[in-house]
Amino acid sequence: MSKIRHALDVRRDDDFAKWYQAVIASADMAEESGVRGCMVIKPWGYGIWERIQRLMDDRIKAAGVQNAYFPIFIPLANFEREADHVDGFAKEMAVVTHHRLIADGAGGLVPDPEAKLEEPLVVRPTSETIIGDAMARWVQSWRDLPLMLNQWANVVRWEMRTRMFLRTSEFLWQEGHTAHTTREEALEETHRALEMYRACAEEDLALPVIAGEKPENERFPGADETWSIEAMMQDGKALQAGTSHYLGTSFSEAAGIRYQDAEGTQQLCHTTSWGTSTRLVGGVIMTHGDDDGLRVPPRIAPHQVVILPMLRDKPEDEAVLIYCEEVRASLADQSALGEKLRVLLDKSPGKASAKRWDWVRKGAPVIVEVGPRDMEGGKVAVLRRDRLWNTENGKPNMQFTPRGEFARRVGELLEEIQQSLFDEARERRDANILHGLNEWAEVTRFFAEGGKYPGWVEVQWARPTGAALDAVVEQLKAEKLTIRNVPRDGEAADGTCIFTGDPAVERILVARAY
Amino acid sequence: MSKIRHALDVRRDDDFAKWYQAVIASADMAEESGVRGCMVIKPWGYGIWERIQRLMDDRIKAAGVQNAYFPIFIPLANFEREADHVDGFAKEMAVVTHHRLIADGAGGLVPDPEAKLEEPLVVRPTSETIIGDAMARWVQSWRDLPLMLNQWANVVRWEMRTRMFLRTSEFLWQEGHTAHTTREEALEETHRALEMYRACAEEDLALPVIAGEKPENERFPGADETWSIEAMMQDGKALQAGTSHYLGTSFSEAAGIRYQDAEGTQQLCHTTSWGTSTRLVGGVIMTHGDDDGLRVPPRIAPHQVVILPMLRDKPEDEAVLIYCEEVRASLADQSALGEKLRVLLDKSPGKASAKRWDWVRKGAPVIVEVGPRDMEGGKVAVLRRDRLWNTENGKPNMQFTPRGEFARRVGELLEEIQQSLFDEARERRDANILHGLNEWAEVTRFFAEGGKYPGWVEVQWARPTGAALDAVVEQLKAEKLTIRNVPRDGEAADGTCIFTGDPAVERILVARAY
């Protein structure tokens, strides 16, 4: 029997939602702000987001997309003109109605009635309509196309029930918006962005994802096609980790994004939009976290190696600190995963053992401890966060390594950790997707009896539309299920629709979801 | 007489405000958004801001400050508790009062009366109060200090008269917020941030600045001390380019930021805050722009070298493009100013001459043109944006250089341009500060008769307070003047106060300002 005493007091298997909150709190990633639906992203959580941003931004720029910035406030009229779009968003937006406060005469402040806006402004829930206005100004001729823009920004969608990183009223994201001459080119961009998201998720965040098209009922309001990447969390639920939309010409028509083609004829642009958000951080937690806290994949870890000097308020402390500084300097010269190694020598006050467990809970990929004995032997004690425990003796799996050897091998070690986190998640994901179900009763049985965290099923369907699709959605909803997507790389259908019995046209993933 | 035909149709000397707008428009940096007081920052303008961000963020992190993110919405109660602070901001804030829109029955949308917030929320004009709440939660003991945070964010201050980059309702900025055990340590941080801003402005943006303390009447609402860096624009006006505040214990007291000291006693923290914004981009334009558009200092140029193939729709075009690609690759391998060179091969459609002038107006530091003849001679035609004209013949000052030599020298060339922009601005600034005035009449005469763009004066004063200071402020205001700051590195006073005739205690800079 394992003698391991885990660093968290709640285990994934016991209460996943409580465990999720415990990881966030004990890794010092974020907290409730006291402001309705908004969180504070603390330095460690924000540092992970900054790393994701940096790596994704490099990919965005490499694709020839340019960053820009558009106003946070959107006039009501922009929403009024796009009926489908506003139906999807109108219910959950923050509305600015005044531009001044005045004293209420009782020590408080109230909106100044004299400063009421003629037209209320909406805090952007997404920027299609305001960027559409700009595109209409900027696009005149086919020579101005493609126009490919991206914005890193905060957006607000009023939420009644919030969960940190996954669903908050304000969140941080990037939104790409592009305009093209043809449907083909816009679809190509839709897929380029989707593939970029897959690569980011899998290569940078070590999140295995399935890329595919959303069914009609799950489309972005106003879109012709919506594609997503879907990741499986450790409780078997799906997390939509990024979406890419082909918007056809409907947004162009509403905003007047027209170009003159080579023959001099006015044409509507075909547009796309695509986005990912701080929700990705939630996906990292629920994929890589364990009963000792977070495990951050090295590529997105703010610090990849943390050095902890074991000080005892004794004269030899100074020599240990000098030794640690030497180790730090030799590591800072190394590269890992194509970048300079990010190493921290943590000299903050506190006991070394308490600090070790803080960094374990934060999920730094490699923790290096240095005490007087290590120093004398020219060694360091290395702890891999992804292989924390010696399961035989139930103790942390410390590897005592000559410092020179460690410095030479650290790049390789971090690559190994990055790969191993991905492999572990992919194996779990693949083991938890059930294929080959032909009857609805099998689906309900799977979710009723498939254990606490059942996973996903892949089934075949006839892609019904209209009322028939509504019926399917209701049937799924009764089991708290949703269609995640039609996997892009899925096999062709060869059976009958599990809902209607008609000949199937494609395979879909069905799951509970965040 | 010069035959030069400048790229802009308005000159700095004729109408500075109109020239400023012309630079922004013709360099494609930003435009009015159609949303009250908000601008759209276009890719070239945003790219410059991204470079400023990246370089400043490196400095911020190197100082041990951690980035985090706080809610955009601030409850009214936060403002109510800090009387001085709210007096300074209450007049210009965007107020969210509803969280949903509904159809008005006539095709429009209105705020849903059912969704009125119990307590209105303010869109942050600055985050002292909300970050103060977090600090109060995070700081318990002296071991938690110093706590040094920074946020990159958008903020909103409702403005009636706006000017792109300089004064807009929404703008982008960074705000540092730190808490310390002692006054000394907080003052040290106030000065560290000020010095960081000076270094950023001078080394990265090539903006010569004067660092100094603001007079009492110009302090940040609620601050004990406010320090600034001031830059002189080409119209002789001052631009406050960054501020650093020592807040004493007043924000700590309002938010309850207390720590237990080593003896177990509860103490109030001493806090600071410091900020710079997209206004810096306005400073770059008004310092380095000329009658041909913008000139971007190489360190903050999104592209430092732009290669323009001179194509003629002829068979040799292909060879020219291949040659250009080789030049691009050889440049991309080079370093300049401590970073990889940023080089763009601009293959967009359009005539080479039109594209040249576009890049001149955008201010790319070096433009490289390549036509068939250059290719045959193994050369490139190099145009330095900071030495655009051959004043003898009034033509662009093209230097035909062997491509290998150019690649070898490009790093050095960019360093030269960076330095030369700074030197030019510093010489102009120094030549336009008048010292040694002893009479108020001399000051008024200087601003009345000192030419269209008179510059600044340095005078001595007795640092009056209260009503005496109010009188000084009024006296200055009548001439549209303000006190910029008390230069940190200024000489000691040795005369009498130009306002009161009392013995002077320090020297101040007086100027018209943005």
Molecular structure report:
Two copies of one chain form a homodimer. Chain A is an alpha+beta fold and 514 residues long. Chain A is built from 14 helices and 30 strands. The radius of gyration of chain A is 26 Å and the shape is globular. At the A-B interface, strand 2, helix 2, strand 3, strand 4 and helix 3 of A face strand 2, helix 2, strand 3, strand 4 and helix 3 of B. Strand 5 of chain A pairs antiparallel with strand 5 of chain B, so a sheet runs across the interface.
Regarding quaternary structure, how should these chains be classified? homodimer
By DSSP, the count of extended strands of chain A is: 30
SSE-based structural type of chain A: alpha+beta
Rounded Rg of chain A: 26 Å
Which helices and strands appear, and what pairs or packs with what?
The structure is a homodimer.
Chain A: H1 16-26, E1 30-32, E2 39-41, H2 43-62, E3 66-67, E4 73-75, H3 76-80, H4 83-89, E5 95-98, E6 101-103, E7 109-111, E8 116-123, H5 128-138, E9 147-156, E10 170-180, H6 183-204, E11 209-213, E12 225-232, E13 238-248, H7 250-255, E14 258-260, E15 266-268, E16 270-277, H8 279-288, E17 305-309, H9 317-332, E18 335-336, E19 339-340, E20 343-345, H10 352-362, E21 366-370, H11 372-376, E22 379-384, E23 389-390, E24 395-396, E25 399-402, H12 403-431, E26 433-434, H13 440-449, E27 456-461, H14 466-477, E28 482-483, E29 486-487, E30 506-511
Parallel strand pairs in A: 3-9, 17-20, 17-21, 26-27
Antiparallel strand pairs in A: 1-2, 4-8, 5-8, 6-7, 9-10, 10-16, 11-12, 11-29, 12-13, 13-16, 14-15, 18-19, 21-22, 22-25, 23-24, 27-30, 28-30
